[in-house]
Structures are given as structure tokens and as C-alpha cells.
Specification:
By secondary structure, the protein is α+β, with helices and mostly antiparallel strands. The chain has one domain. The protein is built from three helices and four strands; from the N terminus they run E-E-H-H-E-E-H. Strands 1-2-4-3 form a four-stranded antiparallel sheet, with helices on one face. 24% of the residues are buried.
């Protein structure tokens, strides 16, 4: 379904489980082509990150600030399947 792995991280202050997925899981080919040049296919990574954050925030995702996991988006989720479902909804593949 999705080639991106999910990393379980420490619970939040209320004890809710959290999981992190790389922001590129939210980027579709359409996003890449809209923000890159057709001849070079080199989209700006900063623009793609903002697109991914915008999609994830609509579903409860937040930017994950951590040196061990650059470019991560964190969700409060009880299972990996929950996060994959959110990614599918955001990219409209479900």
C-alpha cells in the first residue's frame, strides 16, 4: 500500500500514542509536477514539505521537530494502519 515506514515514538503528555511518517508519503506525482519544471523534474523540497504539512494538518498531523527524524509528520494514532489510512485519505488513494 505505502512504501513509507512508520516510527512509533514516545507518548504525548496525556499518554496518547504517537507515530511519525516521512512527509514524502503525502506527496503525489501531481504535486511533484506542479511544483517542478517539466524538463528537469526538480521540485523544490521546501515547497513539497509545505504541501505535505497542509494536507496532514487537515487530518490532525503536526510537524515533528527532532534530529533523529528529519522531515517527519506526527500523528496521534494507535496503529500503523490508522496512519496509512490518513495518508490514503490525504492523497485520495483510498
Amino acid at each position: 500500500m505505502n512504501d513509507y515506514s512508520i516510527t512509533k515514538i514516545t507518548h504525548d503528555v496525556n499518554g496518547n500514542p504517537r507515530r511519525v511518517i516521512h512527509f514524502l508519503a503525502f506527496i503525489t506525482d501531481e504535486d511533484r509536477y506542479k511544483n517542478g519544471t517539466a524538463s528537469h523534474y526538480q521540485p523544490d523540497i521546501g515547497q513539497l514539505y509545505e504541501i505535505a504539512l497542509k494536507k496532514a494538518r487537515k487530518l490532525g498531523g503536526k510537524k515533528f521537530h527532532n534530529k533523529q527524524f528529519g522531515g517527519g509528520i506526527v500523528f496521534q494514532a494507535y496503529s500503523d494502519d490508522d496512519v496509512y489510512e490518513l495518508v490514503a485519505r490525504a492523497t485520495k488513494t483510498a
